[in-house]
Amino acid sequence: MTTAFSYKQGNSIVHRCPAWIKILFLPLVSILVFMLPWQLALVLICLQTLAGILLHLTLQEQLCDLQAVLYYAALLIFAKLVGALFTHNLNKDFFTDFIPTLLMLLKLFCLMQTASLVFKTSTSLQIRQGLEQMELAVRRFFHMPAKSPAAQMLALFICFIPQVAKNWTQSKKAWFARGGKKGIRMLIVLLPVLFSVGMKQAYNSARAISIRSAN
User: Fold this and answer.
1) With bands split at pLDDT 50, 70 and 90, how would you rate the model's confidence at 3?
2) In the chain, what percentage of residues exceed pLDDT 90?
């Protein structure tokens, strides 16, 4: 079963590219997307979709990582429509005023797609090592001790994203296997489980890093 932000094994140029380069590339794209016209985001979406196909990522695997933006967009559009209906403001000006929101969602979709490609082509270990290399390079420049506590904590946070997605997918799979139905009851039952499992994994990971740093 496909899980969001999960690593997809491969031997492409993107897979072999050092993780620290891809990590630096992500904020650079973010700045350019928000500073330059929306056409850039549209072009990048097309190019990144094509890149995903060349990396043997199915459209389903690509959309799996982008569901959060799609849900957010649907919720935002629905809320604006309901608000306009209740205030009797559903006219041509409403749709004109909604264009900036749609363009913002387009840019957000593009950035999420970029992040997805980074996670799809980098393992958690590669991301952690890439962050450590970056911090150690900065520390060498300022003649500081060769340690990487900030990189370790940041890596713990970043790599926890695909782990949460994996836990949620496994929880839903177990729920459906027991005859459960998709709905509000599923969320009420599974969200506390997801929180409990996530907190335990975060504690174990933090403790492992603490022991490693002490050694």
Assistant:
1) low
2) 3
Q: How many residues does the chain have?
A: 215
Which H or E run contains 128?
Answer: helix 124-141
Structure tokens at 26: 């992500």
pLDDT at position 43: 92
29-46: pLDDT as tens digits: 888 888 888 898 999 999
Helix, strand, coil content of the chain in percent (nearest 5): 80, 0, 20
Q: Of 50-64, 65-79, 88-102, which gets the smallest average pLDDT? A: 88-102
* E strand segments, the chain: none
Q: How far apart are the C-alpha atoms of 102 and 163, rounded to whole Å?
A: 30
Cβ within 8 Å of residue 134, ≥6 positions away: 20, 23, 24, 151
Cα 121 to Cα 123: distance, rounded to the nearest angstrom: 7
Distances in whole angstroms, Cα of residue 45 to Cα of each of 40, 96, 133, 184, 215: 9, 24, 29, 33, 45
As a whole number of angstroms, the distance between CA 140 and CA 90 comes to 59
Distances (CA, A) of 17 to 36, 42, 53, 119, 130: 26, 25, 18, 13, 11
Q: Let me know: does 48 contact 114? Beta carbons within 8 Å.
A: yes
**Does the pTM of the predicted model rise above 0.85?**
no
